[in-house]
Structure prediction request, 227 residues.
Amino acid sequence: GAGVSQSPSNKVTEKGKDVELRCDPISGHTALYWYRQRLGQGLEFLIYFQGNSAPDKSGLPSDRFSAERTGESVSTLTIQRTQQEDSAVYLCASSSRQGTTEAFFGQGTRLTVV
Amino acid sequence: AQSVAQPEDQVNVAEGNPLTVKCTYSVSGNPYLFWYVQYPNRGLQFLLKYITGDNLVKGSYGFEAEFNKSQTSFHLKKPSALVSDSALYFCAVRDIDDYKLSFGAGTTVTVRA
Prediction:
């Protein structure tokens, strides 16, 4: 596609429910990243993929968070039993196989847990 | 391990004055370095990058940055700031042998008319 696409753009969920956030990277991009940005704050690294494997999961805040990627394409970030502290904008980015290019970001999913 | 430090939470300058946003980094190998800008309620936009070669790199909107290996710094500069440059700026680093991309905490730039 023309850019990184994330869906939904906004999600309001009740505390305790599970949510799935989707990221469609730029076609052919090998690396895919997930970050969390709380209101007025910086980017908190969550996880990244090289192809379909995730070499570094150290940023996932708890075992309620998981992510997968299939076909070196779409990635899904799942948050189970959501808590109010999970409310944030979740950003996805991708970069090319060569690795010298910058990462391109999607517009994010704004998650609100009520 | 890799990390990025942006020592200033906020930078305030008058329009027309030079703007500098500081960034220092730590990587185990050689770095790829990036600057991004985020306008209110907008996604992150790429400004410029250092991969190799000339230490002074030029990017979008008149911004430039200088890579200094001995000081492990990559400060962002603009000779003459505009009110429209007011935004949140992020520095990021990757080790050339790894895909992991780490960001600094961000610096809010306010340019007053």
